[in-house]
Amino acid sequence: MRALAAAALLMWAAPAAAEVSLTGRLEQGGLVLGRTDPGSSVSLDGAPVRVATDGSFVIGFGRNAKSQARLSVRSPSGVVDERVLAIEPRDWPTQRIDGLPEEKVAPDPQQLKRIRDEAKLVAERRRRDSATVSFAGGFMAPADGVVSGVFGSQRILNGQPRAPHSGSDIAAPAGAPVRAAAAGIVSLIRDLFFTGKTVMIDHGHGLSSIYAHLSATTVHEGDAIERGALIGRVGASGRATGPHLHWGVSWFDERLDPERVLALWPTGTATREE
What we know:
- There is one protein chain.
- This protein is mainly β and 274 residues long.
- Helices cover 14% and strands 39% of the residues.
- It is built from four helices and 21 strands.
- The strands form four sheets. Strands 9, 12, 13, 14, 15, 16, 17, 18, 19, 20 and 21 form an eleven-stranded mixed sheet that branches.
- Strand 6 and strand 7 form a beta hairpin.
- The N and C termini lie far apart (79 Å).
- 35% of the residues are buried.
Protein backbone atom coordinates (compact mmCIF):
# COMPACT_ATOMS: atom_id res chain seq x y z
CA MET A 1 0.00 0.00 0.00
CA ARG A 2 2.81 2.38 0.90
CA ALA A 3 4.47 1.67 -2.44
CA LEU A 4 1.22 2.41 -4.31
CA ALA A 5 0.74 5.66 -2.40
CA ALA A 6 4.30 6.74 -3.20
CA ALA A 7 3.75 5.94 -6.87
CA ALA A 8 0.57 8.00 -6.88
CA LEU A 9 2.38 10.96 -5.35
CA LEU A 10 5.09 10.73 -8.00
CA MET A 11 2.49 10.74 -10.78
CA TRP A 12 0.68 13.85 -9.42
CA ALA A 13 1.81 17.23 -10.74
CA ALA A 14 0.60 20.70 -9.87
CA PRO A 15 -1.56 22.38 -12.55
CA ALA A 16 0.60 24.38 -14.95
CA ALA A 17 0.25 28.06 -15.76
CA ALA A 18 -0.95 28.91 -19.26
CA GLU A 19 1.65 29.59 -21.94
CA VAL A 20 1.67 33.27 -22.94
CA SER A 21 3.41 34.92 -25.90
CA LEU A 22 3.35 38.62 -26.83
CA THR A 23 4.27 40.09 -30.23
CA GLY A 24 4.80 43.82 -30.63
CA ARG A 25 6.52 46.65 -28.83
CA LEU A 26 5.48 47.46 -25.28
CA GLU A 27 5.46 51.22 -25.72
CA GLN A 28 3.20 54.23 -25.75
CA GLY A 29 0.99 54.03 -28.83
CA GLY A 30 1.80 50.35 -29.34
CA LEU A 31 -0.39 47.41 -30.31
CA VAL A 32 0.53 43.97 -28.93
CA LEU A 33 -0.76 40.63 -30.21
CA GLY A 34 -1.07 37.95 -27.57
CA ARG A 35 -1.60 34.22 -27.56
CA THR A 36 -2.32 31.86 -24.70
CA ASP A 37 -3.84 28.44 -24.14
CA PRO A 38 -7.41 28.17 -25.47
CA GLY A 39 -9.89 28.52 -22.64
CA SER A 40 -7.69 30.88 -20.64
CA SER A 41 -8.94 34.25 -19.40
CA VAL A 42 -6.89 37.46 -19.63
CA SER A 43 -7.09 40.86 -17.95
CA LEU A 44 -5.05 44.04 -18.27
CA ASP A 45 -4.88 46.27 -15.19
CA GLY A 46 -7.92 44.43 -13.85
CA ALA A 47 -10.10 44.89 -16.97
CA PRO A 48 -11.09 41.72 -18.85
CA VAL A 49 -9.61 41.18 -22.32
CA ARG A 50 -11.46 39.13 -24.93
CA VAL A 51 -9.70 35.88 -25.83
CA ALA A 52 -10.55 34.09 -29.10
CA THR A 53 -11.27 30.36 -29.21
CA ASP A 54 -7.71 29.77 -30.46
CA GLY A 55 -6.24 31.70 -27.49
CA SER A 56 -5.37 34.90 -29.39
CA PHE A 57 -5.99 38.38 -27.96
CA VAL A 58 -4.90 41.99 -28.42
CA ILE A 59 -3.92 44.76 -26.02
CA GLY A 60 -2.97 48.36 -26.71
CA PHE A 61 -1.32 51.30 -24.99
CA GLY A 62 -2.28 54.92 -25.60
CA ARG A 63 -0.07 57.96 -26.11
CA ASN A 64 0.03 58.71 -22.39
CA ALA A 65 0.19 55.13 -21.11
CA LYS A 66 1.80 54.71 -17.69
CA SER A 67 5.22 53.15 -17.31
CA GLN A 68 3.80 49.81 -16.15
CA ALA A 69 0.76 47.64 -16.85
CA ARG A 70 -0.26 44.41 -15.15
CA LEU A 71 -1.21 41.45 -17.33
CA SER A 72 -3.02 38.54 -15.67
CA VAL A 73 -3.68 35.18 -17.36
CA ARG A 74 -5.76 32.45 -15.73
CA SER A 75 -5.25 29.00 -17.26
CA PRO A 76 -8.19 26.63 -17.85
CA SER A 77 -7.06 24.75 -14.71
CA GLY A 78 -7.31 27.95 -12.65
CA VAL A 79 -3.61 28.81 -12.27
CA VAL A 80 -3.05 32.58 -12.43
CA ASP A 81 0.09 34.01 -13.99
CA GLU A 82 0.62 37.72 -13.34
CA ARG A 83 3.36 39.76 -14.93
CA VAL A 84 4.25 43.43 -14.92
CA LEU A 85 4.76 44.91 -18.37
CA ALA A 86 7.24 47.76 -18.68
CA ILE A 87 5.82 50.31 -21.16
CA GLU A 88 8.48 52.28 -23.01
CA PRO A 89 7.92 56.07 -23.09
CA ARG A 90 8.28 58.03 -26.32
CA ASP A 91 9.18 61.60 -27.21
CA TRP A 92 6.49 63.48 -29.12
CA PRO A 93 7.18 66.23 -31.66
CA THR A 94 5.28 69.51 -32.01
CA GLN A 95 3.43 70.29 -35.23
CA ARG A 96 2.19 73.76 -36.15
CA ILE A 97 -0.67 74.15 -38.61
CA ASP A 98 -1.81 77.59 -39.73
CA GLY A 99 -4.48 78.78 -42.12
CA LEU A 100 -7.38 76.80 -40.66
CA PRO A 101 -10.85 78.43 -40.65
CA GLU A 102 -11.21 80.09 -37.27
CA GLU A 103 -14.55 78.37 -36.55
CA LYS A 104 -12.76 75.01 -36.83
CA VAL A 105 -10.27 76.07 -34.13
CA ALA A 106 -12.62 77.98 -31.80
CA PRO A 107 -16.17 76.66 -32.42
CA ASP A 108 -19.22 78.60 -31.24
CA PRO A 109 -21.64 77.13 -28.61
CA GLN A 110 -23.93 75.53 -31.20
CA GLN A 111 -20.97 73.91 -32.91
CA LEU A 112 -19.62 72.74 -29.56
CA LYS A 113 -22.87 70.89 -28.90
CA ARG A 114 -22.58 69.17 -32.26
CA ILE A 115 -18.97 68.27 -31.50
CA ARG A 116 -19.91 66.77 -28.13
CA ASP A 117 -22.74 64.73 -29.66
CA GLU A 118 -20.47 63.43 -32.42
CA ALA A 119 -17.74 62.56 -29.92
CA LYS A 120 -20.24 60.47 -27.92
CA LEU A 121 -21.28 58.61 -31.06
CA VAL A 122 -17.70 57.84 -32.10
CA ALA A 123 -16.81 56.77 -28.55
CA GLU A 124 -19.80 54.41 -28.47
CA ARG A 125 -18.67 52.75 -31.71
CA ARG A 126 -15.11 52.45 -30.38
CA ARG A 127 -16.38 50.57 -27.32
CA ARG A 128 -17.59 47.64 -29.41
CA ASP A 129 -16.03 44.33 -28.35
CA SER A 130 -17.06 42.02 -31.19
CA ALA A 131 -15.84 38.44 -31.32
CA THR A 132 -14.57 38.65 -34.90
CA VAL A 133 -10.80 38.26 -35.40
CA SER A 134 -10.65 40.13 -38.70
CA PHE A 135 -7.50 41.90 -37.48
CA ALA A 136 -5.61 38.59 -37.67
CA GLY A 137 -5.38 38.95 -41.46
CA GLY A 138 -3.07 41.94 -40.97
CA PHE A 139 -3.01 45.65 -41.75
CA MET A 140 -1.84 47.58 -44.81
CA ALA A 141 -1.40 51.28 -45.54
CA PRO A 142 -4.83 52.59 -46.64
CA ALA A 143 -3.50 55.10 -49.19
CA ASP A 144 -0.38 55.79 -51.23
CA GLY A 145 1.57 58.85 -50.14
CA VAL A 146 3.95 60.30 -47.59
CA VAL A 147 3.15 60.53 -43.89
CA SER A 148 2.88 64.28 -43.40
CA GLY A 149 1.51 64.22 -39.85
CA VAL A 150 2.60 61.70 -37.23
CA PHE A 151 0.77 60.12 -34.33
CA GLY A 152 1.15 61.76 -30.93
CA SER A 153 2.46 65.13 -32.09
CA GLN A 154 1.36 68.14 -30.04
CA ARG A 155 -0.81 70.25 -32.33
CA ILE A 156 -0.57 74.05 -32.47
CA LEU A 157 -3.49 75.20 -34.64
CA ASN A 158 -3.51 78.83 -35.79
CA GLY A 159 -1.14 79.45 -32.89
CA GLN A 160 -3.39 77.79 -30.29
CA PRO A 161 -2.40 74.55 -28.48
CA ARG A 162 -4.85 71.72 -29.10
CA ALA A 163 -5.12 67.99 -28.43
CA PRO A 164 -2.29 65.73 -29.65
CA HIS A 165 -2.66 64.17 -33.08
CA SER A 166 -4.49 60.86 -32.77
CA GLY A 167 -3.38 59.21 -36.03
CA SER A 168 -1.28 59.49 -39.17
CA ASP A 169 -1.85 61.97 -42.00
CA ILE A 170 -1.08 60.62 -45.47
CA ALA A 171 -0.62 63.29 -48.13
CA ALA A 172 -2.38 62.26 -51.35
CA PRO A 173 -4.20 64.03 -54.19
CA ALA A 174 -7.92 64.68 -54.02
CA GLY A 175 -9.88 61.71 -55.32
CA ALA A 176 -7.12 59.17 -54.68
CA PRO A 177 -8.45 55.80 -53.49
CA VAL A 178 -8.70 55.02 -49.78
CA ARG A 179 -8.76 51.32 -48.92
CA ALA A 180 -9.58 49.37 -45.78
CA ALA A 181 -6.39 48.83 -43.78
CA ALA A 182 -7.75 45.49 -42.53
CA ALA A 183 -10.83 43.32 -42.91
CA GLY A 184 -13.84 44.06 -40.74
CA ILE A 185 -17.34 45.50 -40.48
CA VAL A 186 -18.09 49.13 -41.34
CA SER A 187 -19.32 50.49 -38.01
CA LEU A 188 -19.81 54.19 -38.80
CA ILE A 189 -20.20 56.56 -41.74
CA ARG A 190 -20.82 60.21 -40.90
CA ASP A 191 -19.97 63.74 -41.97
CA LEU A 192 -18.41 65.05 -38.74
CA PHE A 193 -17.47 68.60 -37.73
CA PHE A 194 -13.74 68.05 -37.33
CA THR A 195 -13.04 64.99 -39.49
CA GLY A 196 -15.53 65.61 -42.30
CA LYS A 197 -16.69 62.55 -44.26
CA THR A 198 -15.55 59.70 -42.01
CA VAL A 199 -15.55 55.90 -42.13
CA MET A 200 -14.89 53.62 -39.14
CA ILE A 201 -14.23 49.88 -39.37
CA ASP A 202 -14.54 47.34 -36.55
CA HIS A 203 -11.78 44.72 -36.77
CA GLY A 204 -12.78 42.78 -33.64
CA HIS A 205 -11.70 42.59 -29.98
CA GLY A 206 -12.03 46.37 -29.58
CA LEU A 207 -9.66 47.15 -32.45
CA SER A 208 -10.99 49.73 -34.92
CA SER A 209 -9.70 52.08 -37.60
CA ILE A 210 -10.96 55.45 -38.81
CA TYR A 211 -10.54 57.27 -42.14
CA ALA A 212 -11.22 61.00 -42.21
CA HIS A 213 -11.48 64.09 -44.46
CA LEU A 214 -12.81 61.98 -47.33
CA SER A 215 -14.39 63.54 -50.40
CA ALA A 216 -16.65 60.52 -50.92
CA THR A 217 -17.46 57.17 -49.32
CA THR A 218 -18.16 53.94 -51.23
CA VAL A 219 -19.41 51.64 -48.47
CA HIS A 220 -22.33 51.49 -46.04
CA GLU A 221 -22.65 50.87 -42.32
CA GLY A 222 -22.84 47.14 -41.67
CA ASP A 223 -20.87 46.14 -44.78
CA ALA A 224 -18.42 43.28 -44.30
CA ILE A 225 -15.26 44.20 -46.20
CA GLU A 226 -11.89 42.65 -46.93
CA ARG A 227 -8.49 44.23 -46.43
CA GLY A 228 -7.74 46.50 -49.39
CA ALA A 229 -11.39 47.09 -50.31
CA LEU A 230 -12.16 50.56 -51.64
CA ILE A 231 -14.01 52.54 -48.95
CA GLY A 232 -13.71 56.13 -50.17
CA ARG A 233 -11.69 58.88 -51.80
CA VAL A 234 -9.15 61.36 -50.41
CA GLY A 235 -10.55 64.80 -49.74
CA ALA A 236 -10.33 67.88 -47.51
CA SER A 237 -13.66 67.78 -45.68
CA GLY A 238 -13.88 68.85 -42.04
CA ARG A 239 -10.93 70.63 -40.42
CA ALA A 240 -8.28 70.38 -43.14
CA THR A 241 -6.05 72.77 -45.05
CA GLY A 242 -5.82 70.53 -48.12
CA PRO A 243 -6.44 67.02 -49.44
CA HIS A 244 -5.06 64.22 -47.29
CA LEU A 245 -6.16 61.12 -45.41
CA HIS A 246 -6.23 61.09 -41.64
CA TRP A 247 -5.97 57.45 -40.58
CA GLY A 248 -6.38 56.37 -36.97
CA VAL A 249 -6.31 53.04 -35.11
CA SER A 250 -7.80 52.49 -31.65
CA TRP A 251 -8.07 49.73 -29.08
CA PHE A 252 -11.32 50.77 -27.43
CA ASP A 253 -10.61 54.34 -26.19
CA GLU A 254 -6.83 54.01 -26.48
CA ARG A 255 -5.46 55.71 -29.60
CA LEU A 256 -2.64 53.71 -31.20
CA ASP A 257 0.16 54.68 -33.58
CA PRO A 258 -0.86 53.43 -37.06
CA GLU A 259 2.79 53.15 -38.15
CA ARG A 260 3.49 50.83 -35.20
CA VAL A 261 0.43 48.78 -36.12
CA LEU A 262 1.69 48.42 -39.70
CA ALA A 263 5.07 47.25 -38.40
CA LEU A 264 3.41 44.11 -37.02
CA TRP A 265 2.48 43.14 -40.58
CA PRO A 266 5.26 44.51 -42.84
CA THR A 267 3.32 44.38 -46.09
CA GLY A 268 4.19 47.89 -47.22
CA THR A 269 3.74 51.18 -45.40
CA ALA A 270 3.22 54.79 -46.36
CA THR A 271 6.45 56.75 -46.82
CA ARG A 272 7.36 59.17 -44.05
CA GLU A 273 7.96 62.76 -45.08
CA GLU A 274 11.50 63.89 -44.20
